[in-house]
């Protein structure tokens, strides 16, 4: 029976098997990748949110101010007992007393302290400078060093002795280390707002704290805080499970305390709940956005399976006619195709599903997908395989039914093919592209403060694909017409070129098909990479202009005026700037000699900035200044009576000022009295925030509350979501590129006998092998070159138009811009050259190994 022998019969046409398997592989790869991409985006969003919140905020937090001292132990006991039942570890408890006045050290009763205890704090989270652990308290070194307090000193409060100072710890910097993040308000003494005699004394253990509080008769615990240091969730499902368990624990603790009449003794909260909502939204945004592209890619894969079915039908036509004459029905003949090609299709689809999971880290967001995503991706792949096999059987069944049972003539088919060839498909795709552009214009309206994740309209996302497809169809139609008229070409003085033209003209359908697929692949790849990288670079440039350096810290005027020198540890990486506003201008006072060593310029040309900064000391009337903003109505008057500015050059933007109208002047242009009128001084540094604040502390300078780093200045998640979304478009382009390469190689292989015979004959007629190779390279190079040039140019132009539209922070300069497309263009060109060389080698190999007599006899 032919059905039993079908798998073995399939080996007689390995090319068809390869095409069927690769088509199924790519379709299942893209279908599975769409599911994994969105799930990984959710996981990456969870990871991002986990990195920006306190490490003990993933689970529930129990906190309240002014808890009665007698009630606090009951609250702690209730949380600890219920935590284990809901899968949580032992909570970390923090307790702080109110400020205790009248604390005496070495006979001086004017100190103010807060007694505190935090589980695990003294085990590696406080830096012991002197002394040793023991039954007592640890005192900060700032107060101890300033007042000469040593380890072993026994303080007293209102005459009541308390356990001795057993250790001196280095005061927590502001901002505090990450482990102390949630305790910033209580554990870190703000020296700018507090008396320098203030200090937080940490008890060595809980018993010491409890006994001391009982001895002093402290009625209230100023702050009671309990939280859990759980492992950060990696996926959305893990985060949701953590939130559900957290809610259950809060409810259990509330019920437990309520039964004792202490229902209001503590308040439970879920600080990470909003982060989980945002991560869920990021996952759904990416999924909804890439869904049309995934559908298009799957439809393309199904169309490929349909093409394979037609090729198989043409190859097996005599056998199918014979089987039909013997009584086999259309459905049975369709199942014969499934029996022959089903195994390669299933194997290819399975391989595509596995590859989509294994390569997720290469093409997808840097997050872990949910376990369920792998299952859903497998189900999508299984559905694609089922549809592919059904389509394979259906195409064969319909064709055999129409030809063998209905006996339709082929003229109708020819008319239909002719109609499909001449139908203006480019008008239809252009209309869809226009619809997507109209949706894309509205995207920037959702890009504003307060909207953390603007929705990417699915139709807007298809706009670049349909623009590239439209250009590819127009190019294919022009190529079709040119090849149709190519018989008029008379270039026999250059036989290699004439032969290349004739070979192209003899295969117009494959040529135009490869041109469309190649243009679509390269254009989609260029668009996806351009938009994705454009948003990543926009995040970097916007944060650079907004912050001005890696770290920006407001500081005291004594530093700005030069009365206190910068510490040596940061002087080589830090510069001082002053800021004034008024008269319609923002004025930035800089030190030209140190500004470039610390500042980040974003998209500005460093050489041009250096030239202008060096010109700030040029002589002349007025204050030499760099004019920012290119505002025609900008007035030269400077605020605070500094005089008029004399512009020595213009820049479209500048760090901190942005694109607002303003001037940059040198501090050397101002007198000491004028420097004293500058209301705001800041430090720009390439060092970390911790290094800057600790260095300033060593010289007695207190940093104000306005501190910002490039890493934390902007919410990066909206930029990442756009990048993750369009990385799928880049993936689609890469897959289509593989299809285009395979199509070109298959087209060469299908015409192997024809090319071999023609090549052997022209060699017999005197053409040199080098000329014949050049002819093949002209043919293939023209086709690939057109696809590369049209695809890259179209993709770059579309990405250039689209990148500003997808900017999730249009309120911050500079506007998102297309990154340098040169590396992508060179890479695509190099790949194109390699493909052309490989295809030319295959064509020449068939000529060199051909036996002319056998080819003519066949």
From TrEMBL:
InterPro entries: ABC3_permease_C (IPR003838). The keyword Cell inner membrane does not apply. The keyword Transmembrane helix applies. The chain crosses the membrane at residues 286-310, 331-355, 375-398, 419-440, 460-483, 511-532, 717-750, 771-804, 824-844. Residues 726-849 form the ABC3 transporter permease C-terminal domain. GO terms for cellular component: plasma membrane. It comes from the Bacteria. It is found in: Cell membrane. It is a multi-pass membrane protein. It holds the Pfam family FtsX. Its main location: membrane. Keywords: Cell membrane, Membrane, Transmembrane, Transmembrane helix. This is ABC3 transporter permease C-terminal domain-containing protein. It comes from Amycolatopsis decaplanina DSM 44594.
């Amino acid at each position: 029976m032919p059905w039993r022998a079908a798998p073995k019969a399939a080996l007689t046409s390995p090319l068809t098997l390869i095409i069927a398997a690769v088509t199924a592989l790519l379709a299942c790869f893209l279908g599975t990748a769409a599911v994994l991409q969105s799930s990984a985006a959710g996981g990456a969003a969870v990871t991002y949110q986990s990195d920006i919140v306190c490490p003990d905020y993933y689970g529930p937090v129990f906190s309240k101010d002014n808890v009665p001292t007698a009630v606090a132990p009951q609250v702690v006991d209730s949380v600890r007992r219920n935590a284990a039942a809901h899968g949580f570890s032992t909570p970390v408890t923090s307790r702080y007393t109110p400020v205790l006045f009248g604390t005496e050290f070495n006979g001086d009763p004017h100190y103010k302290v807060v007694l505190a205890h935090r589980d695990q704090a003294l085990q590696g989270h406080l830096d012991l400078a002197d002394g040793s652990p023991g039954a007592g308290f640890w005192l900060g070194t700032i107060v101890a060093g300033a007042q000469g307090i040593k380890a072993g000193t026994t303080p007293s409060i209102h005459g009541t002795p308390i356990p001795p100072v057993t250790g001196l710890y280095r005061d927590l910097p502001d901002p505090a280390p990450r482990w102390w993040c949630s305790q910033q308000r209580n554990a870190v003494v703000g020296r700018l707002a507090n008396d320098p005699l203030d200090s937080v004394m940490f008890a060595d253990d809980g018993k010491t704290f409890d006994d001391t509080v009982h001895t002093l008769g402290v009625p209230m615990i100023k702050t009671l805080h309990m939280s859990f240091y759980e492992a950060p969730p990696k996926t959305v499902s893990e985060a949701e499970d953590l939130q559900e368990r957290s809610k259950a624990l809060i409810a259990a603790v509330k019920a437990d305390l309520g039964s004792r009449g202490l229902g209001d003794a503590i308040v439970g909260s879920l600080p990470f709940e909003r982060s989980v909502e945002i991560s869920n939204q990021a996952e759904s945004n990416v999924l909804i956005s890439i869904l049309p592209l995934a559908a298009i890619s799957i439809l393309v894969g199904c169309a490929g399976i349909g093409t394979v079915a037609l090729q198989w039908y043409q190859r097996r036509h005599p056998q199918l006619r014979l089987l039909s004459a013997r009584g086999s029905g259309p459905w049975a003949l369709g199942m014969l195709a499934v029996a022959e090609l089903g195994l390669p299709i299933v194997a290819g689809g399975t391989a595509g599903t596995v590859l989509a999971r294994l390569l997720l880290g290469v093409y997808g967001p840097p997050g872990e997908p949910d376990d369920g995503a792998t299952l859903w991706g497998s189900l999508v792949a299984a559905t694609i395989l089922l549809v592919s096999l059904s389509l394979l059987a259906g195409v064969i069944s319909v064709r055999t039914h129409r030809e063998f049972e209905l006996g339709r003539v082929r003229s109708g088919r020819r008319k239909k093919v002719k109609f499909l060839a001449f139908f203006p498909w480019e008008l239809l795709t252009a209309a869809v592209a226009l619809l997507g552009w109209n949706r894309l214009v509205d995207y920037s309206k959702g890009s504003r403060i307060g909207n953390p994740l603007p929705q990417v309209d699915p139709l807007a996302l298809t706009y670049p694909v349909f623009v590239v497809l439209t250009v590819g169809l127009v190019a294919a139609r022009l190529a079709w017409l040119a090849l149709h008229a190519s018989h008029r070409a008379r270039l026999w003085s250059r036989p290699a070129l004439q032969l290349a033209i004739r070979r192209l003209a003899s295969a117009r359908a494959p040529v135009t098909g490869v041109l469309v697929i190649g243009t679509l692949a390269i254009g989609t790849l260029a668009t996806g990479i351009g938009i994705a990288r454009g948003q990543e670079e926009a995040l970097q440039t916007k944060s650079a202009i907004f912050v001005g350096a890696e770290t920006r810290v407001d500081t005291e005027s004594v530093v700005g005026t030069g009365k206190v020198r910068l510490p040596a540890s940061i002087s080589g990486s830090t510069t001082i700037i002053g800021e004034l506003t008024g008269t319609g201008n923002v004025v930035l006072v800089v030190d030209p000699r140190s500004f470039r060593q610390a500042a980040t310029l974003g998209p500005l040309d460093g050489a041009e900035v250096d030239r202008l900064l060096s010109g700030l000391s040029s002589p002349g009337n007025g204050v030499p200044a760099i004019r920012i903003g290119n505002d025609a109505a900008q007035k030269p008057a400077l605020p605070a009576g500094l005089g008029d500015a004399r512009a020595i050059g213009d820049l479209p933007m500048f760090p901190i000022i942005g694109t607002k109208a303003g001037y940059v002047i040198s501090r050397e242009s101002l007198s000491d009295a004028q420097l004293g009128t500058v209301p705001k001084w800041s430090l720009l540094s390439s060092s970390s925030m911790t290094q800057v604040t600790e260095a300033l502390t060593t010289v007695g300078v207190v940093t104000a509350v306005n501190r910002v780093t490039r890493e934390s200045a902007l919410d990066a998640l909206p930029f990442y979501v756009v990048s993750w979304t369009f990385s799928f478009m880049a993936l689609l382009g890469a897959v289509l590129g593989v299809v285009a390469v395979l199509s070109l190689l298959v087209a060469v292989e299908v015409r192997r006998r024809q090319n071999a015979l023609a090549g052997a004959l022209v060699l017999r007629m005197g053409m040199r092998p080098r000329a014949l190779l050049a002819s093949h390279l002209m043919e293939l190079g023209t086709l690939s070159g057109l696809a590369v040039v049209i695809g890259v140019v179209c993709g770059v132009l579309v990405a250039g138009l689209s990148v500003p539209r997808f900017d999730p922070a249009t309120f911050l300069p500079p506007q998102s811009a297309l990154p340098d497309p040169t590396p992508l263009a060179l890479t695509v060109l190099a790949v194109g050259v390699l493909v052309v060389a490989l295809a030319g080698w295959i064509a020449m190999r068939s000529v060199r190994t051909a036996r002319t007599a056998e080819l003519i006899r066949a």
